[in-house]
Amino acid sequence: MEHRDRRKWCDEISKINRNVNGVEEKKNPFDVFS
């Protein structure tokens, strides 16, 4: 999987997990691009 595709996939999974867990938007320690 190309890096760009992997990055997009990880972002989408992270959004789903935050919604399922009821977590408000917080700084992701693994997000090196923010």
Please, could you describe this protein's structure?
The protein is mainly α and 34 residues long. The protein is 56% helix and 0% strand. It has one helix and no strands. The protein is flat and about 30 Å long. The protein starts with a helix and ends in a 13-residue tail after the last helix.
What is this entry, summarized?
The chain has 34 residues and is mainly alpha-helical. It has one helix at 3-21.
Biggest sheet descriptor: none
Q: If you compute it from the alpha carbons, what radius of gyration comes out, rounded to the nearest whole angstrom?
A: 11 Å
Structure classification: mainly alpha
Number of helices: 1
C-alpha termini separation: 22 Å
* Poorly predicted ranges: none
Quaternary structure classification: single chain
The average pLDDT value, as a whole number, equals 80
Beta-strand residue fraction? under 5%
| Anisotropy-based shape | flat
Q: Write the element-wise H/E pattern from the N-terminal end onward.
A: H
Helix content: 55-70%
Number of strands: 0
Domain DUF6760: 2-31
InterPro entries: DUF6760
Protein name: DUF6760 domain-containing protein
Pfam families: DUF6760
Give the arrangement of secondary structure elements.
Blueprint: H1 3-21
